[in-house]
């Protein structure tokens, strides 16, 4: 299952954040085929893709066929998996199951894992990304002063303490 969140930053730039989950009972190849079709539809019209997911495939087991299939998937679309430490910790195992996959590694300013020991045995994965957002536009506020009594204004201003910050 994948949820897509499209975003636009400028007329010529767009990004999609996708969230995917593969339950252990779902066949890896069926899941990757479905994800491949989604990515193939998204990439031509999108500058940036960020996938967060729990594939239930341990990325530490490089000799595992499921891991190899996932690596082949990321290579097919020139995607990069940026999380490299354990994301699920139990009494007997430490696995890398929760991933963030990006289309452009240079977008990522920081990534990591935050422990959520009180909530789940899966840790929270995060990344801070660089987005080319439009420059801040200038806001101008105008107040009509035609009906302002300048004598009352000056008296009020003189009788109140005013702090200027800046």
Automatic annotation (TrEMBL):
All copies of domain Endonuclease/exonuclease/phosphatase, residue ranges: 32-125
Q: Which Pfam families match?
A: Exo_endo_phos_2
> What GO annotations for molecular function exist for this entry?
catalytic activity
| Alphabetized Gene3D superfamilies for the sequence | Endonuclease/exonuclease/phosphatase (3.60.10.10)
Q: Which domain of life is it from?
A: Eukaryota
Q: Matching InterPro entries, A to Z?
A: Endo/exonu/phosph_ase_sf, Endo/exonuclease/phosphatase
Report the PANTHER family cross-referenced here: ENDO/EXONUCLEASE/PHOSPHATASE DOMAIN-CONTAINING PROTEIN, PHD-TYPE DOMAIN-CONTAINING PROTEIN
What is the protein name stated in its UniProt record?
Answer: Endonuclease/exonuclease/phosphatase domain-containing protein
């Amino acid at each position: 299952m994948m949820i897509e969140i499209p975003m636009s930053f400028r007329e010529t730039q767009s990004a999609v954040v996708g969230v995917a989950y593969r339950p252990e009972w779902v066949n890896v190849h069926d899941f990757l085929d479905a994800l491949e079709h989604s990515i193939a539809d998204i990439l031509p019209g999108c500058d940036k893709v960020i996938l967060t997911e729990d594939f239930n495939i341990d990325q530490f087991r490089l000799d595992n066929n499921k891991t190899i299939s996932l690596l082949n998937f990321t290579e097919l679309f020139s995607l990069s998996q940026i999380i490299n430490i354990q994301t699920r910790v139990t009494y007997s195992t430490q696995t890398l199951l929760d991933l963030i996959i990006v289309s452009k590694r240079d977008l990522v300013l920081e990534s990591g894992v935050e422990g959520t020991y009180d909530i789940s045995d899966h840790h929270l994965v995060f990344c801070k990304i660089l987005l080319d957002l439009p420059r801040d536009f200038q806001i101008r506020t105008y107040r009509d002063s035609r009906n302002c009594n300048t004598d009352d204004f000056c008296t009020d201003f003189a009788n109140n303490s005013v702090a200027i910050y800046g």
